[in-house]
Amino acid sequence: MIGAFYWFRGIDIYDQNRVYAANYWNISDQFVGPSHNQFLDPESEAAFYSLYNKNWYIHRATIDSFIERRGEPDYVIPEPILNWPGNGNPELGTAERLAPFADANGDGYYDPYSGDYPLIKGDAAIFQIMNADIDSESDYYRRMGIEMHSMFYAYEADDQSVLGNCIFVHNTIINRSWFDYKEFQTGLYIDFELGAYIDDFTGCDSALSLTYVYNGDSIDGPDPLGYGDMIPAFGIQQLSHPMYACGFNSIDVNFFYGYYYPFSYFMQGYWPINFLDFYSFPLT
Asked: Which residues are CB-contacts of 260 (< 8 A; sequence separation ≥ 6)?
């Protein structure tokens, strides 16, 4: 997989369609960190991105060790626990609380020196904060006030087991705008490249809410990145909500894809099959 981005759409209080749809062509429209409502001067902006332009990795064994030893006077708190982004920065316009944590003294403030520790899923986890709440130079959407917390996690299991070959993602989508959205939808843009991409096939099973990619022949290649005769397959399954629609790009519209972005229609499963259809699609 070369890239994956979450898409959002909804109708605002003025009955205007708002869309956030980062993808291969406008990757810069994906913003790191939490939503914030303050104008940042260059120095503050640099500090903001230094703070949030990262992923936070932590292992459950690290947390278990902390819980067991946190009362020892000579215990050194590990960096993943010490720098867990449990607290926001209201001075920069963010929410007061961000990443989930166990609040040992109930004061609402993350402080590992008071016994607080991260709450994660699985045996190892990566936490990430993104937002769709910054004005973009792109013409493809308007800011939505959406903040997303993603926890990627896995379990220690045998490599040959199903669980040993799964990575789970838990997303918390937060509306930080001052109004509610109607007809709110989420989507997932995926740029599958399974080794050598030239012989890949993709498909979906709506009954299983599953999107998948597999090799189209017995050899993955020719390409230095190919798997050769060790043919893999890869799938993404939605566990919490059913799949509403699934669409795929095709060769006959690739050339025009960079010019017109009817993302709302894509998220509802409508896909142009020729140039005339593509040209006729409304922007929203």
From this structure: 278, 279, 281, 283
The per-residue pLDDT for range 90-102, each reduced to its tens digit, is: 888 889 999 999 9
Residues 6+ apart with CB under 8 A from 105: 114, 115, 116
The domain segmentation of the chain, as residue ranges, is: 11-189
pLDDT tens, position by position, 200-255: 888 888 888 888 889 888 888 777 788 888 888 889 998 888 776 666 554 333 33
The rounded Cα 143 to chain-centroid distance in angstroms is 17
CA–CA dist 119, 97 (Å, integer): 13
Q: What's the farthest any 2 CA atoms get from each other in the chain? A: 72
